[in-house]
């Protein structure tokens, strides 16, 4: 670790003379020491670092602090490691407190990833402009001992770009339209062609191949001579992504899918528009490092793109004795003539200039002191400065409020089928997560006509996929500040609203919900508007958070939810928050907990199938048991308020480095080659969750339960426990009353332990029933009726 410390310390010291470009509130704990850097010199852009934490007490302090922690915590061989996004000032504070620090991702590495992404985007645009061309190499049918098969090979000038999808369409002998998606074939890095091999009943005369870039070609279907041995006739296509996509691309992608598959998909526009990828234009007048009391912050009333970026200001010394302070406004230009003394030197204070600007140019801008200064410094002349919103996205990225959209997939989208909600990019910097969502949607739609298992899911489920919950923050992460976690809504007061703080504004959408919130005393969120985990001014204040709740409220058939995050390779479920005494939100019953674990096995097996990735047992389980408290997270509100089995993926499992003998973190924005693999394997996991939901929807099997007794001759008591035929909640009474839904339930014995047992001290009649997660009740007993077909057993104590 010493090497990592030296590398990071060198980075911190190298920026001592750089003027600040970004700011995060300085992390503090009771042990914080004074920094040798000046405050503003330490307010630099941030880095992804790993902190070696000496003990649990220090861990609790970090979780409760305003440090921007990632969802990554590693306990191994008695050592605790956690990752964070930190400014140079925060790094120096941590180093001086004795923490070991290691760099994970540098700005240079992220810039290279962005360069590669832009190259792919440019190539796709060029191909689209030049018009994709298709060449059908083969369109054959053959019959052998196994059946009749259709085989097609087609080559596209677009090559192996996964976002360009080739589809074969034909008409069968009954006049019904049939279709299938072709798979790309690549060998040793060379694109060969796209192909499909299908078991068919009717041989078509012609096939038409279309590409999603707009190309089309047609060919007659001819007989293939020979009787090779085909595969099993199944055709399941995967891999539809070829670059990181910004939220605009992501939204256009699902709109195109819904348009292409109108019979089984539609777009749901969520009702709460975001603030938009926009900001007011700003400028700072004066030297904030050497004379902050004379510095002035100007903020336009208009959004930058709506006129704020055209406003300019100039401070002039009239170079005459005893001049009065004057402000002249002409269109978008503000000219300030400073007051002078008898020797023609400026004497206007920042407070006086601020008052004058607000009086004369208040229709254009608001002037405020810099941070907590009182404006006591003398303002000096300054050449013309133009205000700017500082946003760097290209013009095609809209600055208007964004309509967040879900793609709804299912044959019957009327609420009659079991609903599943998948959503990603709550945290803007998690670029892989929307790819998981898109890959899942593509697989469901493009394999529907050719794969029986896919058809089963689409026909029997009502699937909602929101690939980008946080589009404003997502755009900001791609084009302005890659480590952006929050949305772009600035709730900070004037003293924190200068442009040096721009990378720290926003609300952590996964801390903004109403269950287990920091506003209710739970930890793992912050009320500091500059903190990475800022929970917002109040619960569910943000439109992005409201949209998720709206989906749950409007679609009570949703019974399963997956919140797709990165990174670290975790698989978690509620409770997600605890208070300062480490008292968690109510734990699931023993039966519900057993179901979470049972479902996990199916989902994690599916993830492993792609490239062997194993989500570690120590990173699987309730959030507080494997990570730390996350106050106000969205999975908790779905579970506790809407009865949705809600999970959290943290895609991007650590990779083992045999050279160092250590697990290596992949980070939020790994090279696309790694991000692609993460998307593929966790899309597998999403299909696994859909399988779980499908089984739930057709579960009509009644659970069974039995009572087990273990006498303790020493104490003269009897320990009782229950066994169930499947994960099921047991409701019981010991006072002779009939069991109901209000009766006691069997809970967990302890953290990560199984069901509790009960000590009986005197002869007791135990009455009980069990109910599985699908709502099936043992023996069809009605706890709210007059029936007595519950279980009962006398437990005798000698």
Automatic annotation (TrEMBL):
Residue positions of the active site: 650
Keyword vocabulary terms for this entry: Carboxypeptidase, Hydrolase, Metalloprotease, Protease, Zinc
Xref: InterPro entries: GH29D-like_dom (IPR059177), Peptidase_M14 (IPR000834)
Superkingdom assignment: Bacteria
A GO term from the CC aspect: extracellular space
Domain annotation Peptidase M14: ranges: 368-693
Gene3D superfamilies, sorted: Zn peptidases (3.40.630.10)
Keyword Hydrolase: yes
A Pfam family of this chain: CHB_HEX_C_1
GO terms of molecular function: metallocarboxypeptidase activity; zinc ion binding
Annotated transmembrane regions: none
Cofactors, names only: Zn(2+)
BP terms from Gene Ontology: proteolysis
Family to which this protein belongs: Belongs to the peptidase M14 family.
Name this protein carries in UniProt: Zinc carboxypeptidase
């Amino acid at each position: 670790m010493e090497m990592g410390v030296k590398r990071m310390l060198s980075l911190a010291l190298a920026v001592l003379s750089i003027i600040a470009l970004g700011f995060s509130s300085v992390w503090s704990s009771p042990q914080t020491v004074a920094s040798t850097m000046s405050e503003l010199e330490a307010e630099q852009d941030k880095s992804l670092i790993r902190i070696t934490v000496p003990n649990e007490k220090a861990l609790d302090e970090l979780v409760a602090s305003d440090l921007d922690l990632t969802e990554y915590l590693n306990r191994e061989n008695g050592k605790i490691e956690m990752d964070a996004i930190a400014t140079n000032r925060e790094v120096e504070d941590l180093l001086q407190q004795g923490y070991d620090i290691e760099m994970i991702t540098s700005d240079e590495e992220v810039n290279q990833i962005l360069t590669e992404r832009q190259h792919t985007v440019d190539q796709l645009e060029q191909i689209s402009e030049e018009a994709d061309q298709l060449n059908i190499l083969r369109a054959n049918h053959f019959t052998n001992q196994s059946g009749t098969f259709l085989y097609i090979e087609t080559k596209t000038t677009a090559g192996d770009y996964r976002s360009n999808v080739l589809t074969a369409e034909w008409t069968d002998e009954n006049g019904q339209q049939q279709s299938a998606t072709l798979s790309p074939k690549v060998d040793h890095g060379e694109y060969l062609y796209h192909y499909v091999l299908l078991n068919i009943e009717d041989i078509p005369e012609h096939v038409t191949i279309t590409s999603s870039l707009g190309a089309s070609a047609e060919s007659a279907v001819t007989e293939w001579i020979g009787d090779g041995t085909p595969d099993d006739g199944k055709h399941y296509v995967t891999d539809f992504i070829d670059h990181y996509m910004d939220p605009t691309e992501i939204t256009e992608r699902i709109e195109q899918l819904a348009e292409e598959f109108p019979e089984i998909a539609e777009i749901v526009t969520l009702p709460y528009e975001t603030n938009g990828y926009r900001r007011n234009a700003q400028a700072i007048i004066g030297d904030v490092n050497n004379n902050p009391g004379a510095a002035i912050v100007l903020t336009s009333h208009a959004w930058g793109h709506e006129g704020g970026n055209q406003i300019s200001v100039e401070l002039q010394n009239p170079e005459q004795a005893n001049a009065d302070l004057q402000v002249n406004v002409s269109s978008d230009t503000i000219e300030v003539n400073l007051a002078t003394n008898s020797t023609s030197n400026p004497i206007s204070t920042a407070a006086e200039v601020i008052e004058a600007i607000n009086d004369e140019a208040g229709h254009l801008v608001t002037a405020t002191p810099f941070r907590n200064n009182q404006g006591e410094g003398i303002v000096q002349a300054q050449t013309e400065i133009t205000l700017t919103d500082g946003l760097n996205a290209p013009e095609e990225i809209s600055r208007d409020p964004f309509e967040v959209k879900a793609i709804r997939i299912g044959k019957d989208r009327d609420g009659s089928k079991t609903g599943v909600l998948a959503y990603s990019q709550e945290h803007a910097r998690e670029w892989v997560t929307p790819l998981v969502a898109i890959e899942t949607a593509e697989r469901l739609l493009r394999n529907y006509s050719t794969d029986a298992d896919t058809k089963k899911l689409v026909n029997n489920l009502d699937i909602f996929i929101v690939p980008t919950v946080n589009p404003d923050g997502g755009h900001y992460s791609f084009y302005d500040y890659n480590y952006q976690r929050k949305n772009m809504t600035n709730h900070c007061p004037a003293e924190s609203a200068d442009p040096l703080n721009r990378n720290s504004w926003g609300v952590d959408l996964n801390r903004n919900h109403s269950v287990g919130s920091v506003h209710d005393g739970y930890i793992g969120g912050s009320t500091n508007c500059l903190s990475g985990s800022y929970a917002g001014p109040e619960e569910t204040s943000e439109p992005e958070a409201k949209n998720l709740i709206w989906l749950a409220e409007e679609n009570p058939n949703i019974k399963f939810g997956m919140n797709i995050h990165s990174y670290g390779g975790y698989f978690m479920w509620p409770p997600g928050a605890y208070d300062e005494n480490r008292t968690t939100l109510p734990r699931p019953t023993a039966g519900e907990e057993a179901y979470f674990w049972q479902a996990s096995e199916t989902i994690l097996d599916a993830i492993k199938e792609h490239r062997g990735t194993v989500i570690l047992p120590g990173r699987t389980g309730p959030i507080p048991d494997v990570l730390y408290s996350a106050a106000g997270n969205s999975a908790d509100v779905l579970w506790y308020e809407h009865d949705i089995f809600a999970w959290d993926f943290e895609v991007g499992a650590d990779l083992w480095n045999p050279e160092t003998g250590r697990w290596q973190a992949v980070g939020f924005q790994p090279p696309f080659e790694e991000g692609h693999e993460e998307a593929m394997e966790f899309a597998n996991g999403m299909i696994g969750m859909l399988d779980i939901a499908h089984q739930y929807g057709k579960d009509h099997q009644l659970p069974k339960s039995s009572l087990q007794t273990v006498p303790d001759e020493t104490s003269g008591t009897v320990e009782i426990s229950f066994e169930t035929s499947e994960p099921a909640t047991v409701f019981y009474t010991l006072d002779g009353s009939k069991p109901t839904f209000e009766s006691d339930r069997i809970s967990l014995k302890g953290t990560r332990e199984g069901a509790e047992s009960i000590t009986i001290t005197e002869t007791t009649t135990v009455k009980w029933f069990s109910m599985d997660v699908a709502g099936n009740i043992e023996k069809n007993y009605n706890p709210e009726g007059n029936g007595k077909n519950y279980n009962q057993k006398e437990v005798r104590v000698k």
